[in-house]
Amino acid sequence: MMSTDRPSPEAWLAVAKTEEPQAGRGSLKIFFGYAAGVGKTYAMLENAHRAKAAGREVVIGYVEPHARPETQALVAELELLPTKEFDYRGVKVREFDIDGALARHPDLMLVDELAHTNAEGARHTKRWQDVVELLAAGIKVWTTLNVQHIESLNDVVGQVTGIVVRETIPDSTFETADELELVDLPPEELLSRLSTTERMTT
Which residue segment(s) compose the domain that 152 sits in? Predict the structure, then answer.
């Protein structure tokens, strides 16, 4: 549960929208795709390796490698923040540790899957709320997002694709991004990648 003596995610978001970066707010970069599997996480990690090589302090707060060896290899070469464990209906669930992230306070933190819903018991219901808190603390964040997870576009994309996702982020959160990097992939290659991943996980 969220502590009552902390500002709400909405209050942090208001600060993030009004404060200039030089006043202490961290910057937000979103690796943005049109569908799951186009390579957003991989692109984020590749960029993170380049940032580390350039001398930046990079820490992975949370990443979903999706059982892809090439992605797992990139994760293994970066500092990885321990996750926090929650009990959910008798099952252990691992989530991003917001308190550990704030205590570590690196220059740049990677937090995959911005629209993710956290397990019950986490301080925030949504991962985007965790990210807003990191930004307010002055931490630069890189994250990933698909177009259908933007609240105002969710229904439109659902009508086109026939698939409606339940996890969304407010448009106002998306609009606070300082940088967007579009990650694209030809449909044939995307289908091949998804097919390969499915075989590896079954």
Answer: 9-201
How far is Cα 191 from Cα 175, in angstroms, rounded to an integer? 30
The enclosing domain of 122 has a CATH number of 3.40.50.300
Dist CA 37 CA 195 (whole Å): 10
CA 133 to CA 152: how far, in whole Å? Answer: 23
Residue 22 within any structural domain of the chain? yes
Task: Report phi then psi at 8, rounded to 5.
Answer: -70, 160
**What's the CA gap between 32 and 38, in Å, rounded?**
9
Give the bridge partners for 111, in sequence order. 62, 143
103 sits in which H/E element: helix 98-104
- Which residue type, as a one-letter code, is found at position 149? H
Residues 6+ apart with CB under 8 A from 55: none
At 64, give phi and psi (nearest 5°): -105, 105
- Interval 127-186: pLDDT, tens: 999 999 999 999 999 999 988 889 887 655 555 555 566 788 999 999 999 999 999 754
Beta strands in 46-158 (DSSP E): 58-62, 79-80, 84-88, 91-95, 108-111, 140-146
Residue 54 has pLDDT above 90, yes or no: yes
Confidence grade of residue 120 (pLDDT, cut at 50, 70, 90): very high
- Cα angle value 177/181/182 (rounded, 5°): 120
